[in-house]
Amino acid sequence: MSNFRPVDRGTDFLLPPSVDEWLPQRHLARFVVEIVEQLDLSSMSRTYRGSGSAAYHPSMLLGLMIYGYATGVFSSRKLERATHDSVAFRFIAANQHPDHDTLATFRKRFLGEIEGLFVTVLQLARQMGMLELGTVALDGTKVQANASRHSALSYGHAMKIEEQLRREVRELLDLAEQADAADLPDALVIPEELERRETRLAAIARAKAEIEARAAERLAEEQAEYEAKLAAREEKQRLTGKKPGGKPPAPPTAGPREGDQVNLTDAESRIMKTRQGFEQCYNAQAAVDTETMLVLCPGLTDAGNDKQQVEPILEQLTELPEELGRVETLLADSGYFSERNVELTREAGLEPLIALGRESHHRPWQERFTDPPPLTGEASAVESMAHRLKTREGRDLYALRKQTVEPVFGIIKSAMGFRQFLLRGLENTRGEWSLVTMSWNIKRMFALLPT
User: Fold this and answer.
1) Is 215 a member of any domain?
2) CATH classification at residue 397
3) Greatest CA separation found in the chain?
4) Confidence of residue 365 (pLDDT cuts 50, 70, 90)
5) CA 288 → CA 9, 49, 92, 418, distances in Å?
6) Whole-angstrom distance, CA of residue 278 vs CA of residue 288
7) How many whole angstroms separate alpha carbon 224 and alpha carbon 111?
């Protein structure tokens, strides 16, 4: 006699099934719905005109977006499919199935409003007793753009292709004039060939204009740096009465360089160095609370260097609502170190603990149990910070950086699977990064709930 449970897919339910009963009471999807229901979505609701067929409610679409990003389902087509295949997505969608066009349009249309909800989620975390500010760790990670690095075009190569295309246009025009007398290939349609080359020439012209604009910005920055170095040399000569050693700084050169590039798919992305080599990327930033691992301030830039990212993050930290608490210490690695960044952090009312350089992996064991002698005399901001980093308390505090922000990036990229932006352009990807980090925060808040 068989001892197997029966497999019956044909018998109807005696009562209509409830999706609510199929989902465990403690489930991330339920928590996402609870959080979204507490958000003010009135600005989204007001934009609907109310004509035509009834629209899907923004709270349902936003819930699908947040749960999708939190669980590794990003594309609108996969989200649409999940409302059929997944009980959790069915629960959020209330057994409705918005199509991928609706989901994609919602994300693109309301990206700014979604970005504005980031702080509201932090306030909810504070009300739930999960967030108490104190020490914040800052770091960045490269996230691939929705563009291939093979779509990048250098200024030198653009000049060569432009010359070739113009030569081909002249040849085709000559052929058109001699069309009656010349034997042309059967498949050759001169107007189509001319249109194709004119389209490519227009794209190259746009690429060259973008490269030239970037070169002008670079020249302004390099000119300011050059003048600052000259002023420093002159001041040193005035104080010492001696000519400074070494060669004087070379003035910057104007105009684009042959190797300057722009991507034809996403012009605002940049080729950046990653662990996998050089990729077309954006530089994503996050200031993370060391106690809860919640992201307090997301940021995104097209600059591969982190040194310029301290000031915008400090502005965001100082603009956080007072009820969230007060940030006291900022931790960052050596990629963020500069004298100006140390001073900016202190001016913002935070204690900077920014590494001055790479740390040795094999320090003498005595350093773990001793403190350096106290500073004597008047010390600069950098000297005070360097001394603080050598103390046992300072070393223990700085050690929180690696175990705070780097795991957040690791979970976002590996567990949540977010390694490449879906959207293009700096503003769009900045909004998408806010959506990613907000989804992480809600996922983390769920993990912090008492069992």
Assistant:
1) yes
2) 3.30.420
3) 106
4) low
5) 49, 39, 28, 18
6) 27
7) 36
